[in-house]
Design a protein that fits this description.
- With about 190 residues, this protein is mostly beta strands.
- Helices cover about 10% and strands about 45% of the residues.
- A hairpin with a 7-residue loop joins strand 7 and strand 8.
- It is globular and about 55 Å long.
Length: about 190
């Protein structure tokens, strides 16, 4: 009988301990990207790729899984510089947009005059017939804005002087992205 009570007490405390771990929040994000056809040779008209809504002062994010939108992100390192990866995939959703951002290293002091370099890949089922554009971009935090970076989150502005698909080269005139509740540790190791 003592053994049965001890086993019951042990199993109850294991269940309580297992339930005391906080459930991680789902990642959320938004992107507002202005594709420009002003560059010579660009044969895709100007368009704006939006999922959620974000600019330098306001934001409305979309949570991973909401209405079929997939959001994933990581903002790694306990201190600057931070390594960032953010992806919003609404290609099967209402906007038809997909955006993937990689910033290998960005500090809290990145400005338009001293930006971090990274890459952006984006497509739109409506505007680019799902043909992806990719290119090097400059990422920075605008003065007098709510933008910034910290462990697990980033709100950033960026431009891309040249983005290419298999058929044409264009540019990203201006863009903003925000990712929150991101992974803070590299889980690939």
């Amino acid at each position: 009988m003592r053994f049965a009570l001890a086993a019951l007490a042990l199993s109850t405390s294991v269940l309580v301990a297992a339930c005391s771990e906080p459930v991680p929040q789902s990642p959320d994000g938004a992107v507002h990207l202005i594709h420009s056809a002003a560059q010579s040779g660009c044969n895709i008209f100007d368009f704006t790729a939006v999922v959620g809504e974000v600019n330098n002062t306001e934001r409305t994010t979309v949570t991973d899984g909401a209405n079929g939108t997939k959001v994933s992100c990581s903002v790694l390192n306990a201190a600057a510089p931070f390594s960032v990866r953010g992806r919003i995939d609404d290609s099967a959703g209402t906007s038809g947009n997909f955006v993937d951002i990689i910033i290998p290293s960005i500090s809290k002091s990145a400005t338009i005059d001293n930006p971090a370099t990274g890459t952006v890949t984006y497509s739109s089922t409506v505007k680019t017939a799902s043909n992806a554009f990719t290119g090097a971009c400059q990422f920075y935090f605008e003065a007098n804005s709510s933008e910034g970076v910290d462990v697990g989150k980033i709100w950033v502005a960026f431009t891309c002087p040249s983005v290419s698909s298999s058929q044409t080269t264009c540019s990203v005139q201006k863009a903003w992205a925000i990712f929150e509740n991101c992974l803070t540790e590299d889980t690939t190791q």
